[in-house]
Amino acid sequence: MTDIRSYVVLICLFIFHLCVVFAQNPAPVATCASKTNTSCDECLKNVTCLWCESSGACVDYPVRKILPPNSLCPLPQARWGVCWVNFQALIITMSVVGGVILIALCICLYRCCCSCGTSKRDRREEERLERQADMRKMKHEERKAEMRSRHEEIRKKYGLAKDNGYTKFENN
Predict the structure, then answer these.
(1) What are φ and ψ of residue 116, in 5° steps?
(2) Exposure check for the chain: N or C terminus, fewer CB within 10 A?
(3) Strand order in 49-52's β-sheet?
(4) Residue 61 and residue 141: Cα distance in Å, rounded?
(5) Whole-prediction pTM value?
(6) What is the pLDDT of residues 77-119, one digit of tens each?
(7) pLDDT tens for residues 8-41?
(8) How far is CA 145 from the centre of its chain?
C-alpha cells in the first residue's frame, strides 16, 4: 500500500514539474548580428554564430554550406567554437585527425583479416605436423614390434628361452 502511495506522489511531482517547465516563457534568443562589435567570446557563446576577426562582425554560420564563403569572412580570420583557433587551422586539424583515424581503422581491419587467415594457416600447419608426428610414432612402434618378433625367432632357433629373472627359488 505504501508503494502505491509513493508512486502516486512521484507521478504527481513529475506532472507538476512538467507543467512548470512548459509554463515558462523561453528567454529571447539574441541573434548573431546583435553581437557585432562586441567580443569574440560574447559572439561564440551562441554556437550558431561565426566571428570574423578582421571586421569584428558576428554573423550567422551559413549552415547550408560546409565552409563559410570568402565573401562572408576569409577562412584565416573566421572563428567558430573557440576564439583562439581560426577556422582554417580547425579544418586542417580536423582533416588530419580524421585521416589518422581512417588509417588506423584500415590498419586494424587489415591486421584482423590477416591474423584470421594466419591463425587458419597456423592451425593447418599444426594439424599437418601432428599427423607427421603420429606417422613417425606409428612407424617406430611397427619397427619395435618387428625387432621383438625377430629376437623371439632367434631365441627359438637357438633354444634360448626368455627366462624371467624373478622366479621363486625352490629348495630341494
Answers:
(1) -65, -45
(2) C
(3) 57-60, 49-52, 78-79
(4) 85
(5) 0.46
(6) 888 888 898 888 888 999 999 999 999 999 998 888 776 666 6
(7) 665 755 676 555 556 655 554 568 888 888 888 8
(8) 58
What are the pLDDT digits (tens) for 87-98? 888 889 999 999
CA gap 64, 130 in Å, rounded: 66
Query: Is-contact 49 60, C-beta < 8 A?
Result: yes
Q: Give CA torsion, residues 9, 12, 18, 21, to 10 deg.
A: -80
Q: How far apart are CA 58 and CA 32, in angstroms?
A: 5
The residues, ordered by sequence, that sit 6+ positions from 67 with a Cβ below 8 Å of its Cβ are: 75, 87, 91
Q: What are phi and psi of 166, to 5 degrees?
A: -110, 40
C-alpha cell at 132: 607427421
Half-sphere exposure of 158 (CA within 13 A, CB side): 7
Side chain identity, residue 152: E
